[in-house]
Amino acid sequence: MRSEQHRRITAIACELAKIDPEYIRLMSEESMTPDKFDDYYIALGGFEPDYFSSRTYLHLYDPVHDYGGAPLECLRYTVLAKDMFNIGNNYEGYKYLGYASHYIEDVATPVHTDMDVINQLSFHLGYEDWINLHWNEIENRLFLKLGEIGIPIKCDYVREHIKKIATISNGYIEDVWEAMKTKDTEMLYSITVPCVLNAVLYTAGYYNYVFTTEEIVEEFKLPPSALSIFGSIVLIGLAGYGAYKILTRKKRRKQGCEKYGEKTI
Question: What's the predicted TM-score (pTM) here?
């Protein structure tokens, strides 16, 4: 999803969940913000590979491989929102709910449910561009569907809620790639409209859950996936190996310079 689509989906979901109109605009605007976090990171001197990792891992969930950070990011902002509401800071609470909405809506898009990001990157970006270009027609068809259904999807646990919508979205992934290859516009509509509808219904259901659940803490006890643990170990190992190479390179250079009488910096 492009940022503007997040804004529209959030606004529609807020209305469906009967969120106070005073805060709908705030939540809609803030639902676009997570796409900017990584840009701020680079502007502040962040490392490019970390940026790419953050931009992919945190905004996806692959239900086939139990891989991706979207469920935990949504939960993290949900807990922050509840903390703010508990101390009477509604502005910050609704702002964090806007952040959390972003991750639900991301995994409603099939291309955010496939961990094979590198090989499918051109199709991923191309599909999101197609959604952006055809958004008016998508939204017109969406309202027709909403008129028929219009019932938020029940949410019991934040992370499981996201994994459920990601599983549904992932079922369309092969069709997305095929439709993008053949430029089958009608097939793309038939895929995208149900996915956007789910984005609205699942986001609205999430809002209902947040406001009817006194405290949301138990989901932090869910164990991380084996693949995520393995990935973390690999990244730590690579970081350690990189540090080792830098240190030994400096040591060898110093020894070489001393041997040949050169100055070291």
Answer: 0.78
Q: Is the dihedral of CA 191, 194, 197, 203 positive or negative?
A: negative
Which ranges of the chain have pLDDT less than 50? 41-42, 44, 221-224, 227, 252-253, 256-257, 259-265
CB 145 within 8 A of CB 190: no
CB under 8 Å to 130, separation ≥6 — which residues? 180, 188
Is the Cβ–Cβ distance between 206 and 104 less than 8 Å? yes
Question: Token match 């705030």: residue?
Answer: 26
For the chain, list the domains and their CATH numbers.
Answer: 3-221 (1.10.575.10), 223-265 (no CATH)
Beta bridge partners of 62: 67
Residues 9 and 27 sit within 8 Å (Cβ to Cβ): no
Q: Which pLDDT score is estimated for 21?
A: 94
Quote the tokens at residue 166.
């990601």
DSSP three-state, residue 63: coil
Within the chain, where are the H helices? 3-16, 21-30, 34-43, 48-57, 70-86, 90-107, 121-133, 135-148, 158-170, 173-182, 185-212, 226-260
- Check if the beta carbon of residue 30 is closer than 8 Å to that of residue 23: no
